[in-house]
Amino acid sequence: MLKRKIESVLAEWKNSGSKKPLVIKGIRQCGKTYIVRKFAKENYESVVYMNFILEPDKKSAFAGNIDIDTIILNLSALIPGSRFIEGRTCIILDEIQECREARTALKSFQIDSRFDVIATGSLLGVRGYGKSGNKTDAGHDSVPVGYETVVEMYPLDFEEFLWAHGISDKVIDSVKSCFEKETVVPDGIHKVMMELLYRYVIVGGLPEVVNMFLETKNIELTYKMQRNLIAEYEEDMVKYADDTDKSRIRECFESIPKQLAKENKKFQYSVVRKGGRSSQYIGSIQWLEDAGLVQRCYNVHITELPLEGNSINDCFKLYTTDIGLLVAMLDYGTQVDILKGNLLGYKGAIFENLMADFLCKSGQKLYYFQKDSGLELDFLVRYRGECVILEVKAKSGRAKSMKTVLNNKNVYHINNAIKLGKYNVGREGDVLTLPLYMGYLIRDKLVEVIVPDIDLSGLL
Questions:
Q1: For residue 347, is it within any domain?
Q2: Does residue 71 sit in the same domain as residue 210?
Q3: pLDDT higher for 266 or 239?
Q4: Are 303 and 412 in contact (CB under 8 A)?
Q5: How far apart are CA 459 and CA 370, in angstroms?
Q6: Which of 311, 342, 358 is the last residue of a domain?
Q7: d(Cα 339, Cα 347) in Å, to the nearest integer?
Q8: Separation of alpha carbons 55 and 50, rounded Å
Q9: 371 three-class SS
Q10: What pLDDT, on a 0 to 100 scale, did the predictor assign at position 397?
Q11: Which residues pair with 151 in a beta bridge?
């Protein structure tokens, strides 16, 4: 049984007393259904569950402009033995993207407030979901804005992966302490963490894949399961996309391994198909991003905060949100090469995507910096209130662009950099070196700021 961070989010939602239905969205097979059913079983006297893909007949309970009493009556008839106890029942609407009327009904559930409602959806953001013919946008008129709480769920992040391997909180806390204090990680812990990191690279965080690996330690079986899941994602592209986009979405997705080759400084449509243009494929990239499969990493005009405000909309790289997906898209045998350290030129792309995985799963957007002069920085992040460089090295290596930027602070306005690689914690002036596995700890902490009152006495 995998421990997931979102369990604390669910508990916080329930304990807050909020009557807003909770909507959990995320990539298919990231564990939404399992964790929601587990939480509801442990915290409610009665659980009423329906899956609109497996049980399409349940859609009829929400048909028409009807009130909550009628919906409950309909569900009571459709689900024999179901009990609706005020304040002690959780209603789970699984795969809600298949039933627009159920999504619309969340507003009524919030106003009624007698029952807690949790909805899950794998493709809530994609164009044309749940629409016959798939010809129009995703029915934004059915989304009850202001009447639901939406939470993004991801595959296991690296810390959850450590929990799955039985690594104790005590060990993890010691690593976090070394990160915060910039002290060396003890050799024994460092060695184990590096080995687990390489496992994470080849397995990723999809729960079914992680469980297969934990049960068998068989790389071939793990790879086959990853390929099966990729096939399911590609089936979704056929099922939910517009007819004109089906092939283009798949072409964009399958081009990612080539796009990440080191010589490519941005996503190139000609790599997708010879003569390809932005107008043909930009909608396909948006579909993949909305489905949770990929995330764009935008180039920025200047190395300053705010990064989003300085980003270039039509200049970006594309990374898979889960590192295991990228590795599974490569040749079978790449997994062994990674574990043995035999990977040559392409390792840079893999470890860059690993950093993207870390950042994505902590809810951060991705940015990089590249100029025609050849100056290139792998990632830029807001960290401790500053714009900071992240350089990712699969092995120890030079980072010329990073040094150029740091040596010209008056031009680039960057004072610090973090270099991650196959080494322990250390510092050389304005460069903090970290082992690769600490990448998941890099995030900016919100600072509580109290705005003082303004003296309005002279204006009254």
A1: yes
A2: no
A3: 266
A4: yes
A5: 51
A6: 358
A7: 12
A8: 7
A9: coil
A10: 53
A11: 24
Q: Evaluate whether residue 412 is within a structural domain.
A: no
Measured distance CA(398)–CA(393) in Å, rounded: 9
pLDDT of residue 396: 55
Q: What's the pLDDT band for 241 if we cut at 50, 70, 90?
A: confident
Question: Do 272 and 135 share a domain, yes or no?
Answer: no
**Could you tell me how far CA 173 lies from the centroid of its own chain?**
23
Task: With beta carbons less than 8 A apart as the criterion, state whether 268 and 277 touch.
Answer: no
CATH of the domain at 112: 3.40.50.300
Query: Are 147 and 221 members of one domain?
Result: no
Beta bridge partners, 343, equal none
The reply to whether 367 falls in a domain is: no
**Distance (Å, whole) CA 104 – CA 128:** 16
Read off the tokens for 60.
Answer: 């009829």
Q: Spell 36-60 as b/e; 16+ CB within 10 A means b.
A: bbebbeeebeebbbbbbeeeeebbe
User: Which of 424, 230, 249 is closest to 329 using CA atoms?
Assistant: 230
112/64 same-domain check? yes
Residue 122: give the domain boundaries: 6-153
Distance CA 68, CA 226 (A): 41
Residue 299 to residue 198: CA distance in whole angstroms: 28
Query: Which residue, chain included where needed, has tokens 């929601």?
Result: 36
Q: What are 32's two structure tokens?
A: 């939404």
Helices (H), 4-67: 6-15, 32-43
Q: Please state the domain count of the chain.
A: 2
Instruction: For residues 277-306, give the mean pLDDT.
Output: 96
In terms of domains, do 55 and 167 share one? no
Q: 258 and 202: one domain?
A: yes
- Does residue 144 sit in the same domain as residue 172? no
Whether the per-residue pLDDT at 132 is higher than 80: the answer is no
User: Reduced to 3 states, what is the DSSP secondary structure of residue 216?
Assistant: helix
Q: Residues near 170 by Cβ (< 8 Å), separated by ≥ 6?
A: none
**What number is the average pLDDT over the span 75-87?**
97
- DSSP at 437: G
Examine residue 456 and state whether it is found in any structural domain, yes or no: no
Q: Domain check: are 149 and 164 in the same one?
A: no
